[in-house]
Amino acid sequence: MKGILFPEPDRSALLSVKKKNKKKHELCARSFCVLSYIYQQVVTEIISSSVVGVGKQASQCLRQETPYSAAASIRVKCVAKYSSTRAESFDVVDVVVAVKSSRLVVACALSNSNECVVAHLKDDDCSRLQEGQSYYIKHYKLISRYGQKKLFFCPSTVIFKTSAVDVSAELDVMCRHAVCPPSKPYERPGSAGDYYTLEGDVIRLSATHLQSTKNGPVAVQDITLQCTGSQIDITLWREAALNDIALGERRTVMHLRVQRRGRLNSTSYTEKMEIA
């Protein structure tokens, strides 16, 4: 190859190419930084949303390992305990409506010194909380319904006894009313949110019969009481309809609620009617 001369490279052209390549690299680097920033923002938002969702679930069923962790458990006092046997199904035996199956249910008013929450227990859980005792409770479900916080046990719920939780007298009354609300004398027209007590003579009485509902047939009985200056119709449902009532008896009926057209209905608290 002797005698062949290669041309001298154009240095200005090489510098121009290097500058262009450098600009391309810088542009790519900037684009990469921008995309990385956007990606981080998106991921952060997704994680934040997930954490909020997990937080909501955690508020319903806390599942930490340490039983005495504030996030894993609540420290409360069982201020009041209300027990009742609720009929689940009814049947007709020899032309008489009777309870076919029932279960024990318990409502416990719990307080952490600041607020009241009602624990709804059933079956074997009914004996786990005792009135007046304080506990640490972990692995539970907590919901808010009708303006009241409600607590439910999970299969993994664990309870530890602890030292007494102080509850003020005002909060004590609030807790007791949460599981067994007060019943006041009835005056027309009444309010749909209150519980009322009636006293009068039984002047009309229907036979107890079964009525279809979305939860199956339930026992129902209609009675009319002659109260001071007026006659008031009452519909008794479920267990309240199974009380032995006779015409002419004077009765006190507690925990009634105003329903449509001003008619009074029994509630889950109307279990027994006392002879006045």
Question: What does this 3D model show about the protein?
Answer:
- It is a single chain.
- The protein has 276 residues and is α+β, with helices and mostly antiparallel strands.
- The chain has helices at residues 11-60, 169-179; strands spanning 73-93, 96-111, 116-122, 134-145, 148-161, 184-185, 196-205, 209-211, 218-227, 230-237, 250-258, 264-266, 274-275.
- The longest helix has 50 residues, at 11-60.
- Strands 1-2-3-5-4 form a 5-stranded mixed beta barrel. It has a 5-stranded mixed barrel with strand order 7-9-10-12-11.
CA radius of gyration is 35 Å
The best one-word shape is elongated
Q: Label the structural class.
A: alpha+beta
Gap between N and C termini: 132 Å
| Proportion in helices | 10-25%
Please summarize the sheet with the most strands: 5 strands, mixed, barrel
Low-confidence stretches: 1-6, 51-71
Order of helices and strands: HEEEEEHEEEEEEEE
The total count of strands amounts to 13
Strand ordering within the main sheet: 1-2-3-5-4
Mean pLDDT: 78
Number of helices: 2
β-sheet strand percentage? 35-45%
